[in-house]
## 1
Amino acid sequence: MNEIDHSRTITVTNDRYREHYHIQTDGGWLNDPNGLCFFKGYYHAFYQFHPYSAEWGPMHWGHVRSKDLVHWESLPVALVPGDPEDSGGCFSGSAIVKDGRLYLLYTGHHYYDDGDQDHFWENQNVAYSDDGIHFTKYAGNPVISAPEDNSQDFRDPKVWEYDGTYYLVLGSRSKDDNLGRILLYQSADLLDWKYVGPITKSTGQESEGYMWECPDFFRLNGKDVIACSPMGIKACGHHYLNLNQNGYFVGQLDYQQAIFHHLNFNELDYGHNFYAAQSFLTPDGRQIQFGWFSSFDQAMPEQADGWAGALTLPRELIMNGDQLGTIPAKEVSLLRSGRVIHSARIIDGDQQLAVTDPQHTEWDITVTTTGDDDQFSWALTGSDEQLIACHYDKAAGEITVHQHGQATDRYATIGHCDQLRLRIFVDTSSVEFFINDGQATFSERYYANGPVTPHLLSNHALPIAIDAYNMKG
Ligand code: FRU
């Protein structure tokens, strides 16, 4: 099995943007969360990792584990590419526990020898571990050697068990009409896989995308959900403003007919910096999601410091009717080191807020709106600019999130709220907004080169209740 070359790994050269309580590399590039699971007393998170530079490169699986979902310990790299089954990279995948053994299912990425990075093929592989630290690639790899129709994009297996059988979904792009689709496979033992077929497909390149990456499958409140990251959806009004999207379909998987009956695609996180999310089921029955706290089209100034990318906080997925939402996992409260504000006050105009450490603070703010045209904002300012702002316009029924340096804002429609609850998590170079307990979520990065100041602003007197906590990480 190929091994990591420790003489080439890189380390962090400057702490200025280092997160205090989010998963990040100790040096090198990170993208998608992979292999999320609970195994032998620990939560495990893996991630797409390039240890030799702060740029995307041949993908490894980085690895951390935690007893409580919020304090993470770095472990040795779990998967190193370069073996025959994954010559060009160990791409995204998922994990499952069977008979006391942890199995990883991942995509092997392969280039043809023509020097063209866009000319590749993909297969699916298994690796396993009994201690949750050391992984062995299965000798019978690949377990799925090629797609039925030889389409090029064929990746990111998400595995689960249903009624004594194992299933996995793959993200794919059909060869004939260039549309995103989800392929289903089934197996009795995780090693021998049988192709079932495509269970759903994009309605059009611009409406739902030409390629669906990173499918996730789970069941919540009696409904099946396929979440995925479609590429190519065209921006439409205040929707689909990122280069690639992340969202979900709620429906029912008919296992007999192999069809996923579902409602329309919806975005899940409306922020500038969210992609390739994956979730897993905790032992106490919660579906917990992490996202890549960035995306391929966003600038990452931390690259100058020897690292790139982070994962979002763990978020609990909740179903409200047919709408999926996210709230911070309850364990996130373990990161608090003390309450620094606890007050009820009137905000009228622009009020600065004094906290011990404005770049490591959790905010819990409830605004009672009194008029139909109320406007309210939370903002973080740097020396002479607004770095991040979250604005509620009651008349428009809309939240707008602004990120310094971005050409366009991001939006979510939430309606006319008499009470607005904002939970906001500020870390050194990120802010997560959770609006009205799952109604809308925004993931945002920011890069401050000096002190920052939190503000609350309103267009007329509004009563608010506010708690703020120092986040120790
Ligand atoms: C999504 C993605 C996946 C792929 C991985 C490669 O961000 O493109 O489809 O497996 O990243 O790093």
## 2
Amino acid sequence: MTAGDSGAPAAGSPAAGFFWHERCFWHDPGAIGVFSAPGEFLQPQPASESPESKRRLKNLLEVSGLIDELEVRKPPAATRTDLERFHTPRYLDALEAGDRGRGGNGGDCAPYMPGSLAAARHSAGLAIAAVEAVATGGLANAYALCRPPGHHAEADRGRGFCLLGNIPVAVRRARALGQVGRVAILDWDVHHGNGQQAAFHDDPEVFTVSLHQAGNYPLETGFFDEQGTGAGLGTNLNLPLPPGCGLGAYDYAMTRLVLPAIEAFAPELIVVACGYDACAKDPLGKMLLNSDAFAAMTRQVMTLAASVSQGRLVVVHEGGYSEGYAPLCGHAVIQALAGSAITVPDPQNDEIAAWAYQALQPHQRALIDGWRDAWAAAGRLR
Ligand code: ZN
């Protein structure tokens, strides 16, 4: 694909893909309550990771008409062979046993009920098909509406609402099949992308970048000094941002370090782990983004992709727990991917942008400049 400076697809380019499956919305985390098991003093309530934020995004695409400008695909579920490229057989066996029984917990805060494994396999299947279609040139770019999310899942356990590592499974498969070489994975979910980091920490061919709220979840990972190991040293970049980062801080982090670092790595494909929990309305994150910010980051990555990876870009849905606001952010991202004129009004966008402390703050600048200087000093920027 070719693209202009705006990052928008050029006329005549293949369409933007939209990968989804109704079964993904049927994953049931069970009686988890908002963030932990209901108890004597925690009134039962739907889980934070409910189908609503994702289903409402799909519905909004239908209502706005944007979905009619997308190449819509409903691919098959991931196979056991696909999953074993990342997950251990023992973990997959345990998931299958739980799914046949009464459900269970994939590990650390990854509860599921019977039927959830089928949803999780379909979720991974969306990422697989989206990566394959873009890597092999069938689509300009693609959005995969994955649920359950995947970026916390590790090889031998689920974590943080994630059962299967959608992106690691998809990227490992595409690389194993020779569909793509170097891959950069950018995770802007408000939580650390520990799953990708763990999957590729010693792989020099896959660059993992995570922009997240410091010390939110998981507590023990996501620090700047985690930079990969062995041959993969220098191919993991964490930006653990302080709570309260808004439009200025995210733009500065992207332009000052994230985008130059990915550009220097020169990937053949960029995959975004796209959570919306850095939005100002999210119950689990403490950041301040609006829908325009997610669209702007998408356009920034599209422009970079146009120069380094022939436009090849896959966006995979991760977290985002504001049922009302995440769909508006998602629509803005997909509109940008498609280069579409179809927009929906975001009644909160301008008010959020006008909040105090949206501009880059001195302590945020100091942190980002420090990381940039260290990354450059290691010879990892052009
Ligand atoms: Zn998250």
## 3
Amino acid sequence: MEEKVNQIKEEALKEISNAKAMQELENARIKYLGKKGALTEILKMMGGLSPEERPVLGSIVNKAKSELEVAIQEKEEILEKEELAKKLESEKIDVSLPASKITRGSKHPLTRVIEEIEDLFVSMGYDVVSGPELETDEYCFERLNLPKGHPARDMQDSFYISPEYLLRAQTSAVQARAMMANEEKSPIRIIVPGKTYRREDDATHSHQFNQVEGLVIDKNISFADLKGTLEIFMRHMLGENTNLRFRPSYFPFTEPSYEVDVSCFKCGGKGCNLCKQTGWIELLGSGIVHPNVLRMNGYDPDIYSGFAFGTGLDRLAMFKYGITDIRLLYGNDVRFLNQFDRKD
Ligand code: DAH
């Protein structure tokens, strides 16, 4: 047996020293030390030996194995050095070549839309506020008049992390945060652009999307304020001739609630493929802040009133720039992004 082991070892050492490339060395390793390698096979035969013989052979094989391992490692270092030397010889660096050009990136269409909205609202005295994307059920729903088990929760197929935490399904969560954080309970005028998440994926829906929320709370706020604000907002984004249509709707945190359509900016309201021949495009949810929401978040509804609105920024960007698939906004494809390389 011992002789056999020595014979295998000598053979292996020869192969290792003759190896001219890494692959050959690896083949030798597998051949002798691998799972089905020659030395491994000998170890497997030990079952047939007497208890006295076993440890003797075991130590002989293990010694041979470690000798081979050392030889392989040494050879590996030699081969690596050789390969590097070869590379250095053939690779000549021309230091006089001009540097590769660094191309200037462009602003993402969503960033453009967000910045445009922020500039407009800041000019009207609003603050831009943010909130956590990993939100509590309390702020995302309960404090917005959507208790557990409320059927309107079904409209937003949400990603729950635990019974208490979810990826926020709407930026409306920040309405409650802003009201609760305002200790003096003074007037509020905020917009909240940010990422939101729902379990949906197709050409017009992405599991991650962006919304902007608006909230105004003060004394004597009425529907006229909401209407005027949204008119300024939409005309600024989509053109001076944009008209708005308010349709009664339902959201638990506003009463009354409205869905807001804008006149189609492609056909001017005559009807085309973009507006599906209706002349209108649905773009916002809005309403007068529900007294329960005011009360739950520390505002007295007998003194204060407010309006709120929310809209999907992806949808707005898609309409504004004629983008037909929402996934393009999240694909990181420079051929798409380059098209927005305007000099601003
Ligand atoms: N959060 C609503 C949604 O994601 C949109 C919305 C509707 C926001 C009405 C509001 C509002 O602030 O008043 O569908």
